Amino acid sequence: MEHFIDDSRPIFIQIAERIENDIIAGELGEESQVPSTNQFASFYQINPATAAKGVNLLVDQGILYKRRGLGIYVASGARARLLEKHREKFFEQYVKTMLQEAEKLGITREALIEMIHQEVKVS
Amino acid sequence: MSKIVEVRDLTKSFGHVTAVNQVSFSVEAEKVYGLLGRNGAGKTTVMQIITAQLFDYSGEVKVFGEAPYENSHVLSRVCFVKDTQKYPNSYRVCDVFHQAALFFPEWDRKYALALAEEFRLPLNRRMKALSRGMLSAAGAIVGLASRAPLTIFDEPYLGLDAIARGLFYHRLLEDCAEHPRTIILSTHLIDEVSRLLEHILVLDQGKLILDDEAEALRGRAFTVVGPAAKVDNYTVDKKTLNRELLGGLASTTVMSDGNGEDRQHAEALGLEVAPVSLQHLIAYLTGEPPARKAVGVR
Question: CB B198 to CB A41 under 8 A?
Fold first, then answer.
C-alpha cells in the first residue's frame, strides 16, 4: 500500500483526505464504523500514532465521532458538509488553475468555455 | 511524557577521531525513533553508549533515568539488536531464544516461534552455520519477541531480502501497536522506514543535525524551479539545501520556515514549486561537502 502514501506531505493529512473521499464516495456511510487506527497503520504500513492523528483531525472537525469503547463512527450530515467543503476547494484547485494555465497558453476565455461545452456534449 | 533516554553533551573520541560531538537529545516513551545518517556518522557509537557497551565518554547519558553502565536494572529493559552480534560457537537458534527468555522479563516464546516460522528460520541450526540473512532474521526476532521497553535495532536487515524486510517492518508496527514500547531504528534505508517513524534524529559527522517529528518534516522542504536570477533572488534570505543549474534555469531546494507563506510567495512570483520527500530532505542535509557549502554561501 506504500504507493498510495506520498512521503512529501504529512501522512496524517493524507489519511484524513482518504477518509473524507470515502465518505464523499459513499463507501463509508454515515453512522458506520471507521477502521481502527491499528487497521489503518497496518494497511498503509504507517505508524499508528500518525494514523490516529489523521482520524482525530476529522473527529475535531465533527466529521467523525467517538463512541466510547466501540470505536470511531461517521457523523450524521458528514457527507453534505464535506461536499460543501470540497466544492469550495474545487474552484481554487481546478477552476482557478485552469484559467491561469489557459492564459499562459494564450487560450481565450471564449475558446475555453467552448472546449468545456464540447466535452460535456461528448460525454 | 516520560523520557526513556536522555543524552546531554555527549562526546566520544577514538584517538584523534571525534565519533560523537556534543550530541544532546531525548527519547520519549512509546514512540518509534529513526536514528539516521550515513556510514560513519556516529550512529552505532551513540547506541553502544546508550546500551552500556561503550564507556569513557564525556557528557551525560541516562536510560530510564539512570546511568546504564553495569546497571542490570536498566539493561534488562533494553534490547539491542546489532548486525555484529557474536554468539558462542555451540549455540543453535533455539539456544539464543532460550537465553533471551532468561534475560528479558517480557519475552514471548510463542511469538518468537511463530516469527521463526514466518522468517523460515530453522530452530536447530547452529548460529555460525546461518546465512547472513538468516542471522539478521534471528536478531530481528529476538528484538521483536523480547518486548523490551526500549528496543534498539542497528541496521537490522543486512542480508535480508526485500520480502523479509517488509515482513519485519509489518510485524514491528503491528506488535508495537499491541504492546507499546520505545523503538530506535538505526538505518540508512530511509525510504523503506520513513513511514514507520514518529521522530527523526539525523547524525552527520558526529553531530546531531536534525531532531524533529517526522510529520513536521514531511513537506517542510520544497524545490523552486525557474530562471536562475529569479530563483536566486527568491532564495537569497532563505536556508537552501541544494542548487542545480540547467542552462539558465536553477532548481533550488529550500528549507521552509514552516507556515507555507514562503511557498505561496514563490508561486506568486511564477516559480515552479515541487514538494520534497522526507528521504530527499535527509539526503540533502547529509549531502557531500559541496552541497553543504552551498548552505553557507547562500
Answer: no
